[in-house]
Amino acid sequence: MDDIIDERDIEYARAIMAGTERMTDLADVNGDGKVDEEDIRLIEEIIRGTPPEISVIDSEGNAVTVKVPVERIVIYNHQCAEILQILGA
Ligand SMILES: [Ca+2]
Fold first, then answer.
1. Which of these, 66, 46, 45, lies nearest to 54 by C-alpha position?
2. 55-73: per-residue pLDDT in tens?
3. 30: CA distance to ligand 1 center in Å?
4. How far is the CA of 82 from the centre of ligand 1 (A)?
5. CA distance 54 to 70
6. What is the pTM of this model?
7. What stretch or stretches form a coiled coil here (predicted)?
8. How far out from the chain centre does Cα 81 lie?
């Protein structure tokens, strides 16, 4: 969609659940391989600015969940800059 997480992302996730939109990796907020009510709850927390944790896909393609706020991060290559952007660092 775009780079802003808002109500339209909730609508899109619900459309994925209803089978009317295509699954995307970003809609699967917790990275468990499916879009469900847990992802909706996490999107709502992100919109409110109160997520207790966030999940990112690491360089090996694994979903990694970290507590928010993120206090430290280790950068080992230039691709990690994208992660910093995602975290707003
Ligand atoms: Ca999910």
1. 66
2. 887 778 888 888 888 787 7
3. 5
4. 21
5. 9
6. 0.69
7. none
8. 16
Total residues found in the chain within this entry? 89
CA angle 86, 2, 60 (to 5 degrees): 40
Tokens coding 1: 């969609």
For residue 42, how far is its CA from the centre of ligand 1 (angstroms)? 9
The per-residue pLDDT for range 12-57, each reduced to its tens digit, is 999 999 999 999 988 998 888 999 999 999 999 999 988 888 888 7
How close is the Cα of 67 to the center of ligand 1, in Å? 17
Q: Domain extents for the chain? A: 7-87
Count of CB atoms situated within 10 Å of the CB of 40: 17
